[in-house]
Design goal:
CATH superfamily of the largest domain: Glycosidases
CATH architecture of the largest domain: Alpha-Beta Barrel
Number of domains: 3
Radius of gyration: 24 Å
Number of strands: 32
Largest sheet: 9 strands, parallel
Number of helices: 9
């Protein structure tokens, strides 16, 4: 190894490693331009062929904040069509760059200095594009964001989804100045949580000219004693057999986090810092009850929480950090320890917060109610696998994510669908995600693909879509008994009832807050008192806008315990809070980890 390069690294290491990052991963040795802020904007209604789009012909007549969902603003509310954004940035001349969009919805095409770099057709997934070097330091970035439904450009954004799909540059944008070859990310693979044993999977971009690389590794600011000279194969360098010094386990109650900094010493001149938690997620049998449970570091942990969309009527899918934090704070007030993030990848800032606060997460791919004919389509299968890779590449190190899911309410009652379900489950496992695989099945006991799931999860709505109040408890118990025979943990992934905010009526009929509260009381009491139920994600945390024209009051899904502006539906809020907090604060007679709720000053 080049001694001079090592000495340079050692001399600069202290300054680099002591830096605090706003979000992870971060890149201490790079110049990174944060492109959030005000961009020029115009809504062009429709562009028939983006391949013929000429950025120089656009006349901008407005401005737009990035990140933001343009169709959440009153002026553009509900419109479907083509929006164009422009931003200029000064960079280092003659230097390559990579631009990262944390989300751009639904379809986006990106141009720099009038030339198209590429496009992307999933409005919720982060993606990168290469930016060629220029003689000039002044660069012009133009983004075409089209929120129309298009089976070719956005094959997994279907118009029939029961949630509004917003458009625009929805999350943050970064421009990284890099060399020809650079570090994209590092996955910390936990091999033995109790002993702190890990491997590092270093993802290298532009690896064609690289067959070997030398890395220095530091954990929590402590440089490891030796460098690692490893082979690079298909853009992956594996650094194996590492131990994290003085490691502490990540639990919901004690969410300890560690940091790894990886620096390449043999020519890339690049470094990365990632944050991770050391913990093991498994499906195990509770020794006290004999029931299957979700276990964190071997401890059975009851999941009590909600299904939650990443949206708000004022912000679309671009909620600011304060709103994201308020949502977590409200969950904690309710006594919850768990969120099911539906039905697409959520804002990475929320995942950061949940890592820090010990909130457990289920995350899933974009998709809702896909039919058998769609699921078995080979092109759709490849789109799903591509989106799975994108999601894992960007969220692998979050200890809060314990369940990895896909295909909400898909046609899993057809045997032909099971090949796609198995392929997605196998892909998660081949990437060595430290978590369990599941999907929310509305086919319940008729599902035919369960062999590919680590956790069995049912969506059903007794007392709302069929039946009455007296059917709520028997339905839950019948489902739990069915899953118990399969020898896997059981989660009620969706269940609940709707209520129009503020509607009280002495007859307590459907759509009243009191009827919703009565349904939720039966659900939560059953879940917290039954050891065969590993968890519940009530539908849903807050009311959300649905697709236009749907036959729902207010054109909203009104099953939230909070309304769309996070105002509690008081009877339901108090009912859930009573059940969840009583479980958390009573003596653990079932051997299940309790997550106490403490209201902090943050």
């Amino acid at each position: 190894m080049n001694l001079g390069r090592l000495l340079l690294f050692l001399s600069s290491y202290s300054a680099c490693s002591s830096m605090m990052c706003d979000h992870y991963p971060c890149y201490p040795s790079r110049r990174v331009h944060h492109l959030d802020g005000t961009w020029e904007f115009v809504f062009l209604n429709n562009i028939d062929d983006v391949s013929k789009f000429d950025p120089s012909a656009v006349v901008y007549n407005d401005t737009m904040v990035v990140p933001g969902s343009f169709d959440a603003l009153p002026l553009y509310s509900g419109v479907r069509g083509t929006a164009v954004y422009r931003r200029k940035v000064a960079v280092t001349a003659k230097y390559l760059s990579r631009i990262k969009f944390e989300a751009c919805s639904l379809y986006c095409a990106i141009f720099v200095d009038g030339k198209k770099l590429g496009d992307h057709g999933n409005g919720y997934s982060p993606f990168w594009l290469d930016v060629p070097a220029s003689e000039s330091p002044d660069r012009e970035i133009v983004v075409v964001a089209d929120n129309r439904f298009n089976s070719k450009l956005t094959p997994l954004h279907l118009e029939n989804y029961d949630f509004y799909q917003y458009g625009g540059i929805a999350r943050s944008v970064y421009l990284h100045e890099v060399g020809t070859t650079s570090i994209s990310n590092v996955d910390v693979i936990i091999h033995d949580a109790m002993e702190g044993k890990v491997d590092l999977r270093v993802r290298i971009h532009g690896y064609d000219s690289v067959s070997q690389a030398t890395f220095a590794v530091a954990f929590d600011g402590n440089l490891q004693g030796q460098t690692h000279n490893v082979e690079v194969s298909n853009g992956i360098a594996m650094i194996v057999g590492l131990s994290v010094p003085n490691h502490k386990l990540w639990f919901p109650r004690t969410p300890n986090l560690h940091f790894a900094e990886v620096t390449e010493l043999s020519g890339l001149n690049d470094s990365i810092m990632v944050r991770f938690g050391i913990r093991e997620v498994s499906a195990c049998k509770d020794s006290h009850t004999g029931s299957m449970a979700v276990c964190i570091n071997g401890q059975p942990t009851k999941l009590l929480g909600y299904s939650k969309h990443d949206m708000h009527p004022a912000f679309g899918i671009s909620m600011p950090d304060q709103q994201l934090f308020e949502d977590i704070h409200m969950l904690r007030q309710l006594g919850g320890n768990y969120l099911r993030l539906v039905h697409y990848p959520h804002n990475p800032h929320l995942l950061d917060m949940c890592d820090e606060l010990g909130i457990l997460l289920w995350q899933e791919l974009l998709g809702w109610g896909l039919s058998e004919s769609i699921i078995i389509n080979p092109a759709i299968k490849q789109d799903l696998l591509h989106d799975l890779d994108e999601m894992v590449n960007n969220t692998f190190n979050h200890p809060s994510v314990i369940i990895w899911a896909f295909l909400n309410e898909g046609a899993s009652d057809h045997s032909d669908s099971c090949d796609t379900y198995k392929a997605l489950s196998d892909r998660y496992k081949s990437l060595q995600v430290n978590g369990l695989v599941s999907w929310a099945s509305s086919r319940t006991t008729h599902d035919k693909c369960y062999d590919s799931a680590d956790v069995i999860s049912f969506n059903s709505y007794p007392g709302w879509y069929g039946g009455s109040l007296k059917d709520v408890v028997p339905t839950i118990l019948s489902e739990a008994d069915f899953v118990a025979k399969l020898g896997k943990p059981f989660i009620k992934s969706e269940i609940g009832a709707g209520a129009i905010p503020g509607w009280q009526d002495p007859m307590n009929g459907v759509w009243t807050e009191n009827y919703q509260s009565q349904v939720l009381e039966r659900i939560t009491t059953t879940v917290v008192n039954n050891s065969t139920i590993a968890g519940v994600s009530l539908w849903q945390f807050a009311d959300t806008r649905s697709k236009p024209g749907i036959s729902r009051p207010r054109t909203f899904n009104n099953k939230g315990t909070l309304d769309e502006y996070r105002r509690p539906k008081q009877p339901s809020f108090l009912t859930v809070q009573k059940a969840y907090t009583s479980f958390n604060h009573t003596e653990n007679t079932l051997g299940t980890q309790k997550v106490g709720i403490v209201i902090h000053s943050w």
